[in-house]
Design a protein that fits this description.
The protein has one domain: Rossmann fold. Helix 1 crosses helix 10 (300-310) and helix 6 (140-160) runs parallel beside helix 7 (194-213). The chain is built from 13 helices and 16 strands. The strands form 4 sheets. Strands 3, 4, 5, 6, 7, 8, 9 and 13 form an 8-stranded parallel β-sheet that branches. Strands 2-10-12-14 form a 4-stranded mixed β-sheet. The chain has a two-stranded parallel sheet with strand order 1-16. The protein has helices at 7-18, 68-79, 94-97, 110-119, 133-138, 140-160, 194-213, 239-249, 268-280, 300-310, 322-329, 338-344, 354-357, and strands at residues 5-6, 24-27, 58-61, 84-88, 102-104, 124-127, 164-166, 169-170, 216-222, 224-228, 252-255, 263-267, 290-292, 296-298, 315-318, 350-351. It is α/β, with parallel strands linked by helices. GO terms for molecular function: L-threonine 3-dehydrogenase activity.
Length: 359
């Protein structure tokens, strides 16, 4: 029987873990891009399988984002410290640098990325490099390069070297014509942001490479993620990043979404667990290559009320950002993740109390 803990406990743990309050957040997940290397039309690729004693060699791109450091920590416990390489184009903090292998990697530099895969005998690749929704709308050319050209490089290298490839997608892959409550795995998507368009492109290209070349491509659509030790990343759910910082630092928080804006969310421990589980799932268990995963759905008002139980003096006001609100209004309110639960046994641990989740 799964352990179900409500968001109150999660919020309490996050506030306590931050000490000064500077480390809790909910942010939309990084998605992926794409680019122009071609694979021979007669190529044939096969997934690599691993025995108990033969751990995968892992590379994480965009590793200094919200999820990369936590994922590296989880995978190093599982597969060994030196079998998991974190990479990014930014300089890591001291504690990240000393926690395990870290290298510079630019996903737009095909040759550099290919050398890393070859020299380190990489077998699993987690591709987290991307510009998020609000930042992407502010700089479409850069988002197009990072989110689309970058993925093309990753796909071609993964196919050439028989990698098992994980690419995250998110709620941003859906649009205003998608069913919102709940949103199934397969439906009309039609996003209206470069962020969302790049995610749909990633899902379809990964599936194409799987069926065309046998690439072992796996993808999860993440909801917003509640996590510790993160800063706002330029996404539409950044309100839930900032509320924790402001609660502890100033006691005042201004939200840029309407108080009743409901979006799917997930505690980071559940997110990382799901990512590892789908990567370890037998290929024959997967009926599709891209799955929704879900845990809870809540509004800014509900989250603020929960935080105020722990920080009663917190003052919350609302100053709606029209761009972010329009994006949020086009995204799912709830995810249908029944296929993930059926195919590979996905179960979340952290949830809202039932009476709140329906409020």
């Amino acid at each position: 029987m799964p352990i179900v803990k409500n968001v109150s406990r999660a919020v309490s743990q996050l506030l306590q873990s931050s000490g000064c309050g500077c480390g809790i957040s909910i942010v939309p997940v990084r998605c992926i891009g794409v680019s122009p290397r071609q694979v021979a039309s007669d190529a044939s690729f096969h997934s690599v399988s691993f025995s108990e004693s033969d751990h995968p060699r892992v590379l994480i791109t965009g590793g200094l984002g919200q999820l990369g450091v936590g994922l590296a920590k989880l995978l190093r416990k599982r597969f060994g410290k030196n079998n998991v390489i974190l990479s990014d184009i930014r300089k890591p903090a001291d504690h990240v640098f000393h926690s395990g292998p870290f290298i510079y990697s630019d996903i737009l530099d095909y040759k550099n990325l290919r050398e890393i895969v070859v020299n380190n005998r990489i077998t699993w690749l987690f591709h987290y490099s991307a510009l998020l929704s609000a930042v992407g709308e502010a700089n479409v050319p850069l988002a197009r390069a990072v989110n689309i050209t970058g993925l093309h490089n990753v796909l071609d290298i993964a196919a050439e070297h028989n990698l098992r490839l994980f690419v995250p997608s998110t709620i941003g892959a859906f649009g205003p014509t998608s069913p919102r409550d709940p949103t199934p795995d397969l439906c009309i998507q039609r996003p209206r942001t470069i962020y969302g368009v790049s995610k749909v492109h990633a899902e379809l290209m990964g599936e194409y490479y799987h069926y065309r070349y046998g690439l072992d491509f796996r993808c999860l659509r993440y909801p917003g993620i509640i996590s510790a030790d993160s800063q706002p990343g330029g996404g539409t759910t950044d309100y839930a990043v900032q509320i924790f910082h402001d609660a502890m630092k100033t006691g005042k928080f201004q939200c840029n979404l309407k108080p009743d804006t409901r979006l799917p969310m997930m505690y980071i421990d559940d997110c990382l667990k799901a990512t590892l589980e789908v990567m370890e799932a037998p290929a024959e268990a997967l009926s599709m290559r891209t799955y929704n995963i879900s845990a809870m759905s809540f509004t800014p008002e509900e989250l603020a009320q929960e935080v105020q139980k722990h920080v009663p003096e917190l003052q919350v006001t609302y100053n709606v950002d029209e761009v972010r609100q329009a994006i949020a209004d086009s995204w799912p309110m709830n995810f249908d993740d029944s296929n993930a639960r059926r195919d590979w046994g996905w179960k979340h641990d952290y949830d809202l109390p039932e009476e709140e989740s329906r409020g």
